[in-house]
Design a protein that fits this description.
The chain has about 190 residues and is mostly helical. Helices cover about 75% and strands about 0% of the residues. It is built from 7 helices and no strands. The protein has helices at about 5-15, 20-30, 45-55, 60-70, 85-115, 125-180, 180-190. Helix 1 (about 5-15) packs across helix 2, helix 2 (about 20-30) packs across helix 3 (about 45-55) and helix 6 (about 125-180) crosses helix 7.
């Protein structure tokens, strides 16, 4: 099988569109010793897949034992055994911590609700205006640095354009600076009718 066909099969394999026969061809190819260098990176996957496919369970009665255990679960009193008092203490302390956390969250949210509603009274127009202005100023201050960065970029572009204009002026007057004689003669000729 040529390399182009293997690469095509590999693309189909990674897209999940190969048949079992094509996957078997890929496994045989990559388990051989004559894999080109550009395809060596795929070789460990196919070698592992071949080894995993041939691996068997050591106990021949494993399937029967598993079926028995699943169909007839053992009758035990507790699912999690209490072996030491340390486990009991850890369980009780974790439950107490969870309850305290929930109580703390409840009072925090309750305080926020009362703070926002002024103990059940509706907010006045001044308070609403203050809250809106505060939110707008927070938004402006959060985005201020981003705006400054954009202005700095514009200043950099403006400076570059200014330098280009200076260069253009130099180019216009370069002949006068370097060779003033031909320019004087040309200006005299242009003055005569």
């Amino acid at each position: 099988m040529n390399i182009r066909e293997i690469e095509t099969l590999l693309e189909k394999f990674y897209e999940g569109q190969t048949t079992l026969e094509e996957e078997h061809i890929l496994r045989r190819f990559f388990c051989s010793n004559d894999v080109p260098e550009n395809l060596k990176q795929h070789q460990p996957f196919f070698i592992y897949a071949k080894l995993a496919h041939t691996e068997t369970i050591g106990d021949p009665d494993f399937d029967r034992k598993l079926d028995d255990r699943l169909s007839h679960p053992a009758k035990t009193g507790r699912v999690i055994p209490w072996q030491t008092t340390g486990n009991k203490l850890m369980f009780i302390s974790s439950m107490a911590a969870a309850v305290l956390l929930l109580i703390g969250l409840y009072f925090t949210f309750q305080h926020e609700v009362f703070k926002n509603s002024s103990h059940g009274l509706p907010l006045s127009a001044q308070e609403l205006a203050y809250n809106d202005a505060r939110q707008a100023l927070l938004l402006v201050s959060a985005n201020f640095n981003t705006g400054i960065k954009q202005v700095e970029r514009l200043q950099f572009i403006d400076k570059a354009l200014h330098n280009a204009a200076l260069f253009n002026k130099f180019y216009q007057y370069q002949t006068i600076i370097i060779n003033p004689e031909p320019v004087k003669q040309q200006s005299i000729k242009s003055k005569k009718p």
